[in-house]
Design goal:
Layout (H helix, E strand, L loop, with lengths): L1 H4 L3 E4 L5 H8 L4 E5 L2 H10 L5 E5 L11 E6 L10 H14 E12 L11 E6 L2 E10 L4 E11 L5 E11 L3 H10 L2 E6 L13 E8 L2
Length: 213
């Protein structure tokens, strides 16, 4: 998308810079918006020497004084917008920073596939560490809470367990469509990052929304 739409690219919730570094290594200039100082420090190290501009800011209230042909919010970043006011404020900021004809691209969970039954599942193994998770759902509030357990084995065979919690607000398909339309964006939904058709069995909703004026 960065090659197709040109730069610079604005990334919301840039975290430790995984996406920003990937794009910058391929020639894109990236503006990386991230509220966490600790994450920005890691991102600055990861992108040192690359055309990445780190900006301290909240996606609900930022002003960069310029517009972009492409704005990205990867890795479910918008699921940290818990209220209608948060969502509207963030989208208004996006629209203000999009060029005419510019594109806002983001991905979200497909809520039809959420399995919040409290069962403990293995998320993955990473060297000497194993990550497990269980999820709780509040359907009336469209909230999802994920508990992560990180088990790390030291060289002597000892096990250390740590716990982290992630709160997210999930979105339904037509809720997003109406939200984008109300903000003056023309949205297109895909079921994958290669433009696959969306259906109930796709794990993600991938949206590209163009500013129409």
């Amino acid at each position: 998308m960065a090659e197709r739409h040109g730069g610079p690219v604005l990334e919301l919730g840039a975290g430790q810079g995984r996406v920003a570094a990937y794009l910058a290594r391929r020639g894109a200039e990236v503006w990386a918006l991230e509220p966490s100082a600790a994450m920005r420090r890691r991102g600055e190290v990861a992108t040192r020497g690359l055309p990445v501009h780190w900006v301290a800011g909240d996606m609900r209230a930022f002003e960069l004084g310029r517009r972009f042909p492409l704005v990205l919010a990867p890795f479910n970043a918008l699921m940290h917008l818990y209220t209608l006011s948060d969502q509207d404020a963030a989208l208004a900021c996006v629209v203000r920073h999009l060029e005419a004809g510019g594109v806002f691209a983001f991905d979200l969970y497909n809520p039809l596939l959420i399995r919040a039954d409290g069962a403990l599942r293995l998320e993955g193994r990473y060297g000497a560490a194993e990550v497990y998770y269980r999820q709780e759902q509040e359907p009336a509030a469209q909230r999802l809470r994920t508990h992560y357990l990180l088990d790390e084995t030291n060289p002597n065979g000892g096990l250390r367990r740590s716990h982290r919690t992630l709160d997210q607000r999930y979105f339904t398909r037509y809720e997003v469509e109406r939200w984008l339309r109300a903000a003056g964006l023309s949205g297109r939904l895909a079921g994958g990052f290669q433009g696959e058709p969306f259906d109930a069995d796709r794990p993600v909703m991938v949206w590209t929304a163009r500013r129409v004026s």
